[in-house]
Design a protein that fits this description.
mainly beta, OB fold (Dihydrolipoamide Acetyltransferase, E2P), five-stranded antiparallel sheet, 5 helices
């Protein structure tokens, strides 16, 4: 039976108050295409009738879907309705969205079966239109929602814009795995780097909401000073050591008599500050000894 033909008063008469509120929000979104939000509970596979591009006949197709369950009702968001742009979503990015708060518009209701289908794309389009009426400017501080997090990149959303940020735009420090520091569903401060409402371009940075740890380096960590640090990474024969402030990374080399295999990520070492690169804002040093 079509939704418009249902006797909702009869079907909803025995609902509890929380159930009634949940269904009412779904009805309102479906009728007026209004935006609602909820947390991603997981990912399911569902079968839909889809008309392939260039074809006239619908075929059955199994589709990955985000699942939102605010209380009792299952909201299904097909993979094709998750992003406005092609993010090469696939298995990994959908699963990395679990726990994120997402916005969506209800597009179909099966009241008898107790579920609804929604589109996040429609919600993003409406939110971008609302953002275009704001006076956003370069340098403005905003709150962004963390949508998904991978090892080296995360996706955030502001005002309907999904923005992929590599690790270098999230933190000044070397972060081996972003999943250990930020999580879907969190809110982070960011600064607007560029906004063009006509071209629908929004560029932001999370790390630039704070001062660069290199600023004032000569006072805090002068040349030839020794510091306690923790090995946080290795690359191209160099060793990244993080100082006790937990934000300043020093690219270190070994003494000729030291063996790389004796030094593991997580080891505490004593280093000496040997050089600055003011153009690239880098600090160089040498490992003196392993402490523990």
């Amino acid at each position: 039976m079509e939704f418009k033909d249902l006797n909702l008063s009869e079907m909803d008469k025995n609902l509890t108050e929380p159930e009634r509120e949940e269904w009412q929000a779904i009805y309102a979104s479906y009728r007026s295409a209004s935006v609602i939000s909820g947390g991603v509970a997981g990912v399911d596979l569902h079968e839909f009738k889809i008309v392939p591009k260039g074809k006239k006949k619908a075929v059955s197709q199994t589709v990955r879907c985000l699942i939102v369950i605010k209380y009792r009702i299952k909201i299904i968001i097909p993979e094709s309705e998750v992003f406005l742009e092609d993010f090469n979503s696939g298995y990994h990015i959908l699963h990395s969205m679990c726990g994120a708060q997402v916005d969506y518009v209800i597009t179909y209701i099966d009241r008898e079966a107790g579920f609804a289908v929604a589109s996040r794309k429609l919600a993003l389009e409406k939110m971008q239109a609302a953002t275009a009426r704001q006076r956003l400017k370069e340098g403005q501080m905003i709150d962004v929602k963390i949508i998904s997090v991978g090892r080296n990149v995360c996706t955030v959303n502001y005002g309907g814009y999904d923005i992929m940020l590599p690790q270098r735009d999230v933190s000044y420090s070397i972060v081996p795995d972003l999943r250990e520091t930020i999580h879907p569903g969190e809110i982070k401060k960011a600064v607007i780097k560029e906004y063009d409402k006509d071209e629908k371009i929004l560029k932001i940075s999370i790390k630039e909401t704070t001062a660069h740890p290199f600023d004032g380096i000569e006072t805090r960590h002068p040349l030839k000073s020794t510091r306690i640090a923790t090995i946080v990474g290795k690359y191209g024969g160099g060793v990244f050591c993080r100082l006790y402030d937990n934000i300043t990374d020093v690219l270190c080399s070994y003494d000729p008599m030291q063996y790389d295999g004796d030094y593991k990520i997580g080891n505490t070492v004593e280093i000496i500050i040997s050089k600055y690169n003011f153009e690239r804002k880098l600090v160089y040093g040498k490992i003196l000894r392993k402490m523990h």
